[in-house]
Amino acid sequence: MKISAWLPIVAAAALAFGLAVSARASTSDSASPLEKLNVWVGRWTLAEESRETPYSHAFSISWGADCSWMPNQSYMICDFESDGVDPAAGGVENNLSLFTYSTSDRAYHHMGITRDAKPLFEKMDVIGDIWTDRFELPYKGKILYCRDVYTFTSPSSYTHRFEISDDQGSSWTLVSTAVATKSQ
After folding, report:
1. CATH assignment at residue 93
2. Theoretical Cys-Cys bridge with 160: which of 14, 37, 80, 175, CB 3.0 to 4.6 Å?
3. Is-contact 114 93, C-beta < 8 A?
4. Alpha-carbon gap, residue 133 to 16, rounded angstroms
5. How many domains does the chain have?
6. Domain residues for 178?
7. E strand or H helix at 14, and its extent?
8. Distance CA 111, CA 97 (A)
9. What is the rounded distance in angstroms from the CA atom of residue 105 to the CA atom of residue 59?
């Protein structure tokens, strides 16, 4: 599978992961870690710049996300749609992200779902206002190590970096950057 097939799900995950981080500052004294996910509720926009790399082509795209609680309040679901044609996907992209908090391992978890690739399931590392998601993707007979790094600058904005390593994390190639803002 081409790495470009994963870029839409990574971009959608970026927006959703970043939203989770902003909850940290506004609800740090919450009784339940799930309450941190309240910050996602609403409409978000994401401006993404993909770079020319061995794994991607340069392009710009924007995304919108509508996020809300599932009825039992254990899962946050975010519906992402690109505002134009995503060159990596060959059309308008529509992806889902599902977020929750696991009390057994005391960590946030994300599942990203797109129509054209296997779902991704990740655990997120949090240090201050920086959340990092790590995962692996098969590529041309080898494994690429990937990471999404979300740095929150306020409860309503964050920056995102998607990076790939083909040497087990010794060096990283910046694939895309993004800025997200909450509009509602």
Report:
1. 2.40.128.20
2. 14
3. yes
4. 11
5. 1
6. 3-182
7. helix 7-26
8. 6
9. 38
Task: Tell which residue, 125, 137, 127, 120, has the closest CA to residue 56.
Answer: 137
Give mean pLDDT, residues 115-130.
Answer: 81
Strands annotated E in the chain:
42-50, 59-69, 76-82, 94-102, 107-114, 117-127, 130-139, 142-154, 157-165, 173-182
- Produce one character per residue of 80-116: b if its CB has 16 or more CB atoms within 10 Å, e if not: bebeeebbbbeeebebbbbbbbeeeeeebebbbbbee
Residues in the chain: 184
Residues 6+ apart with CB under 8 A from 168: 145
Tokens, residue 61: 């795209």
Give me the half-sphere count of Cα atoms (radius 13 Å) on the Cβ side of residue 48.
34
